[in-house]
């Protein structure tokens, strides 16, 4: 997992999976790098092949810690179709901006 | 859906025990996927099976109790051509599997596992034992495919159907997102529209509209420019001061455009903007948005009329998506319509107010001039009036005091329009009221000044006036002036027209002005001319002023001919027009002409009077007859 902080934009990429195995680590590392005020957080899921409910829980925790997305724009980039469907099934897509680039 | 009976003849089975930790559980789920893939299970089902096994395995580890914490849970997978059965055996206290499961509300970090399993599997059972429980999950694969045989070719291929379904889901999901986006755009526009209707505040309206636009398109800057009358694009609103550049000229033939906004305005088509690809050294106001800025510039066009441009962009993050492009265009079009409507409405209101004011002022002014002048024995009285522009503050009045005496007034209210006309009305009314008190012209002026000073000085206006009390029987005139030009008459002591010098400062200048009057006896023929400076100040096309001497000369040339006052008035008006020629009328003109009509038979014109003396000027042609 790679975290890049570009001023007001935080980019998290190179996430091969987001599961019970690494969701705790994801939460800690991204949480520590979150912008204090306004900004954009982009989670690049281009390389992510698998997400389970713990991974969804970690994303939800991120949503919570950014004031329910009010302070910070949360964007999920390029999820694979089945992961996109999982977001929709669990209604996570209502909390995040999901962008295909 | 009921339980699915597996095909007992060709089941492929798989069992794996795994260490009680999340990493091992994850590997087990991946291994199940590998096994199912070998059985030809489709990608979508593979993901669902892997996920459900992962969820079940995680539960098995998370809720393991006591001595069983170290016991290995295990997973079984049984695959037939028709169905997949997955079993995860745990050593937990077990739980009540709810009959239905929903996404946690309100949303929370936990509670999605059972919901995912319930949603992705066709049948789920939880078999509870003593310190060992089994979660059984079943999913239909391709029902009856093996037995279909030759009929398979006539049926739609299930893989194709599934792919199509997946495509449809994606399309519907995309459409839902787009719909959501458009609905947000529309509600932003409606909200702004409603606010505009309530407040009429266009500046605030633009701020709010563009605030919404930035939010919707994840943009962080905008510049709104409007065209002005000088052929420039002027910044009307922007997200930040750095982008408030100077006006840029609209494109002229043969000249390079002063930036992309000018080019968009000239071409009337939108353009993309990228700061790092703008040529260094050229004028490009949008470069202030930052070196990495990307954006869109749209022309604001309404009914073929270029109203301005709008530039919207991001400092980082590259170009907008297609949908965001469209939102910018929608906002630009909407703003163009609103801007034109707003300008049109404001202009219409201004014109309507102006026209109404003019109408009121004209009505007042019409009512100012007396409909009839007093009838006098042996004398005639006529008034002339001509406004320079729409409405002025000049007026005259004649008030009969007895059968042989009257009060003549000519006044000039400084200024134009309704205020001047209103003051003229007031002074006329006051004079009519005061004239019955038997006071002389100087006292009347002093009293008028005291009454009007506060109002006049509060609006920085003043009035010049000439009041003359005329006793026809005694052939005497008593006049007082408040900064007004002197009246002209023929004194009893001479035969030439002279000015009666009366001095005083205009009404409304000092609070306690004392006016003094001059009295003179007028000779034969009895002739008085009270006038405003519009007569003496009139200029010809060469810029030459008519002046008092010319007026005296004209009166001298015209007053000895038994001419009725009304005709003299017409001649004087014609003389004014003749002198002015094609030059514009600079000031209002008002005058009162009193003449003795019909000289006694035993009197004749003075010996010096010779009309030929004035014949070098053509005789005026009456224009107001």
* Most residues in contact: chain pair: A-B, 35 and 32 residues
Figure out the total of helices of chain B. Answer: 13
Strand order of the largest sheet of chain A: 1-2-4-6-7
Instruction: Please state the structural category of chain B.
Output: alpha+beta
Distance between the termini of chain A: 20 Å
Taken from the alpha-carbon principal axes, the silhouette of chain A is globular
Give me the number of helical elements of chain A: 3
What proportion of the residues of chain A form beta strands (DSSP E)?
25-35%
* Helix/strand/pairing category of chain A: alpha/beta
Distance between the termini of chain B: 108 Å
Rg on CA atoms of chain A, Å? 12 Å
Shape of chain B: rod-shaped
Count of extended strands of chain B: 21
Q: Topology as H/E string of chain A? A: EEEHEEHEHE
- Strand segment count of chain A: 7
Unreliable segments of 5+ consecutive residues of chain A:
none
Helix content of chain A: 25-40%
**Describe the biggest sheet of chain B?**
6 strands, antiparallel
- Describe the biggest sheet of chain A? 5 strands, mixed
Low-confidence stretches of chain B: 1-8, 144-153, 600-625
The residue-averaged pLDDT of chain A reads: 90
